[in-house]
Specification:
The complex is a heterodimer of chains A (105) and B (481).
Chain A: H1 5-14, H2 21-38, H3 82-87, E1 92-93, E2 96-97
Antiparallel strand pairs in A: 1-2
Chain B: H1 9-17, H2 23-41, E1 44-47, H3 49-64, E2 76-80, H4 107-114, E3 118-123, H5 157-164, E4 170-175, H6 181-187, E5 191-193, E6 213-218, H7 221-231, H8 249-252, E7 261-265, H9 275-290, E8 294-298, H10 306-321, H11 339-350, H12 353-366, H13 372-393, E9 398-402, H14 418-423, H15 429-434, E10 438-445, E11 451-457, H16 463-475
Helix pairs in contact in B: 2-3, 7-16, 10-12, 10-13
The chains are: A mainly alpha (105), B alpha/beta (481).
């Protein structure tokens, strides 16, 4: 097995995900089969390859003037939707979201 | 399309201009069809008649004043439920957003409405667009209108089914690893994934940010081109939206295809393809040859690594994007004794099995000790796959492949083994990783009468080339090849 029960519980903790006992077992089995399949990437020698995080930064169109990906100015704009956003929250206390106590954690 | 000729964007326009029907009547007609057919198909999750009729009345007012109509005036459209619509429930096919009403419109939605389209409602999809059969929706699967015991494909299954059943003239879908093209293929309609950055992602609820794209599904290539024209272009609200000029796609599609070199990558014709699909795709390539296109055999040596690469990158990005569903700001909250307990319970209750699986996989791939072996390795192989495409496009104008190795399969037939479901994305994830545009266009049917899709890919921002070939193929009888 590539992945142990402890691995599954650890990753679920990192992901803040409550899993049932049945889910722990099925995810362990499925992740194991998927990760085993992914081992095939090890067949490729990539030590000289630059990782590609985002395709546009690699695009030939970027060389043409006027077609570059320009980041806009970071200007703070007042949000006109605060009321609507809070109205959709599970437990609003305008202008805040209310959550359970965190102090004793 | 139950025998009758489906409405198209030009026929909607000419009927409105000739006063044969008003936009309000047109809208009512589509809602009547939906009422009749949707209980079986489950293509729509939410309808928004108030908004639709208000827009239809605006179009009718323009008509009665004799003013000119915007390009999509009165065209009834459906929107995949991962795309935000102000005040209209947007669930992402998930319980965690069951009662989420976005406070703003996605840019693509805003542009469609500005172009005159009438937004009928929101379409079903795999939860957070994660799936290839639409069986991962928390609101039940969608049925394929051509074969109701079969899946419509996914994740934009509701959009594809709605268009194929005549419950919308066109729809927006999203494609991260094939989620527009594959359901288009399985439902027998043209379905287009534009280049990464071609259409703003503002308001698209994120799955994998370096891969997600919005694109059109329609009953004709011309209509897909018209919808793409309306939604494409730079948007200050999406820093990854591209400034490259948007061509007049409807004019571009008329250009002759004679002499174009079409690459046929051998790796896409290896084992694993349904023989009936292979036959139709080969006939489709024959049809392109008869139109004067020149097939060129190619090698794209990293194709076999695309599924592993895609499922590392997509799940890693998803695990990060979906961290926002924690019961604090929107959506479901399951009470807990502590903040952390609330997070865990909310997410455990709110997400379905496929989403949990992918969050787990992505979190694992990003976790300490595994980052280099999985995520970084995936990004490096992604660079190799992108290089395969660059090399290919130095020799050919477009690449032609099957869209899906199989036609529409039966509901429940493939749900037992997630890895097997992932492997069926083999022909579509490559173009997703490389960022290039691609379309699936109907390419005959299997002996059982199930549609087959032909995928046409072109270099970055080569949408016009993709549409031009697809249009010529469709006009030459591709859907019956």
């Amino acid at each position: 097995m590539k992945i142990s029960r402890e691995d599954v519980l650890h990753v679920a903790e990192l992901a803040h995900l409550e899993l049932s006992e049945g889910e722990v077992q099925s995810i362990q089995r499925e992740l194991d089969s998927i990760l085993t399949y992914m081992e095939k990437l090890g067949e490729l020698e990539t030590s000289q390859v630059e990782p590609l995080a985002q395709v546009l930064f690699d695009a030939p169109a970027q060389d043409k003037p006027g077609e570059e990906i320009a980041l806009r100015e970071d200007v703070a704009v007042a949000c006109a939707l605060t009321g609507e956003v809070l109205a959709g929250a599970p437990d609003p206390s305008p202008p805040y979201f209310r959550v359970p106590k965190v102090i004793d954690r | 399309m139950t025998g009758a000729t489906p409405w198209t964007i030009p026929s909607v326009r000419s009927s409105l201009e000739a006063r044969k029907i008003s936009a309000r009547e047109m809208t009512a007609d589509f809602y009547a069809r939906i009422e009749k057919r949707n209980p079986e198909l489950n293509a729509y999750l939410t309808l928004c008649p108030e908004r639709a009729y208000a827009q239809a009345d605006r179009i009718d007012a323009l008509l009665s004043r004799g003013e000119s109509l915007p390009p999509l005036a009165g065209v009834p459209v459906a929107i995949k439920d991962v795309i935000s619509t102000r005040g209209v429930r947007t669930t992402c096919g998930s319980r965690i957003l069951e009662n989420y009403f976005p406070p703003y419109d996605a840019s693509a939605v805003e542009r469609l409405e500005r172009a005159g389209a009438v937004l009928l409602g929101k379409t079903n999809c795999d939860e957070f667009a994660m799936g290839s059969s639409n069986e991962n929706s928390a609101y039940g699967p969608v049925r394929n209108p051509l074969a109701p015991e079969r899946v419509p494909g996914g994740s934009s299954g509701g959009s594809a089914a709605a268009v194929a059943a005549g419950l919308a003239v066109a729809a927006l879908g999203t494609d991260t690893g094939g989620s527009i093209r594959q359901p288009g293929a399985l439902c027998g309609i043209p379905a287009m994934m534009p280049s990464y950055g071609r259409v703003s992602r503002y308001g698209l609820i994120a799955f994998a940010s370096s891969l997600d794209r919005i694109g059109p599904l329609a009953t004709s290539v011309r209509d897909a081109a018209a919808v793409l024209r309306a939604i494409a272009g730079r948007d200050p609200n999406d820093s990854t939206s591209a400034g490259a000029p948007v061509p007049d796609y409807q004019a571009e599609i008329e250009k002759p295809v004679k002499g174009l070199r079409i690459g046929i990558p051998q790796e896409y014709f290896a084992e694993g393809m349904d023989p009936a699909v292979r036959k139709r795709v080969e006939a489709g390539i024959g049809l392109l040859r008869s139109l004067g296109c020149q097939p060129v055999e190619l090698r794209m040596p990293h194709t076999d690594y695309a599924i592993a690469t895609y499922y590392i990158i997509a799940t890693a990005e998803a695990s990060s994007n979906l961290a926002r569903y924690d019961g604090v700001r929107y959506g479901l909250r399951v009470p807990g004794t502590t903040l952390l307990d609330m997070y865990r319970k909310t997410r455990g209750r709110g997400f379905g099995p496929e989403v949990k699986r992918r969050i787990m996989l992505g979190t694992y791939a990003l976790s300490a000790g595994y980052y280099d072996a999985y995520y970084l390795k995936g990004q490096k192989v992604r660079a190799l796959i992108a290089r395969d495409f660059r090399d290919a496009f130095s020799r050919v104008d477009a690449i032609v492949t099957p869209t899906s190795p199989v036609p529409a399969f039966r509901l429940g037939e493939r749900t037992a083994d997630p890895l097997q479901m992932y492997l069926a994305d083999i022909y579509t994830v490559t173009g997703s990783l490389a960022g290039v545009p691609g379309i699936s266009v109907p390419c005959g049917k299997t002996p059982e009468g199930l549609p087959v899709g032909l995928q046409i890919l072109a270099p970055l921002f080569g949408e016009a080339r993709v549409l031009q070939l697809a249009y010529a193929f469709e006009k030459a009888g591709g859907s019956n090849v």
